[in-house]
Design a protein that fits this description.
Layout lengths: L1 E10 L6 H18 L4 E6 L6 E10 L2 H15 L6 E11 L1
Antiparallel strand pairs: 1-3, 1-4, 2-3
């Protein structure tokens, strides 16, 4: 079994408040959950900053190649959105 985790740091330049940021983050989480089933997606840090967000995404699968492929596809999908820019993305894979 392999557990894969992505930590994605986002810059949200158009937002001017925490309410605006939450709308962008909620929309992102809904889109990712709608497109990719069986992933856990959540805002994991910087909840009090209105132009920055850190999103955690995790997946579980039978082998490293499959989990890494899924997480790469999630990142590619996220890069298509215009509401934010990806500042940094870190993928960690843990074999159990």
């Amino acid at each position: 079994m392999v557990v894969g985790v992505i930590k994605v740091s986002l810059h949200i330049p158009e937002t001017r408040s925490l309410k605006g940021k939450r709308q962008v983050v909620k929309k992102l989480i809904q889109r990712v959950n709608g497109r990719f089933k069986n992933l856990a997606v959540s805002e994991v840090a910087d909840q009090d900053l209105w132009q920055k967000a850190v999103i955690g995404i995790s997946a579980v699968g039978p082998d490293t190649r499959l989990v890494n492929s899924i997480l790469d596809k999630v990142l590619d999908y996220m890069e298509e959105f215009d509401d934010f820019e990806i500042i940094q993305a870190e993928i960690d894979l843990i074999s159990m």
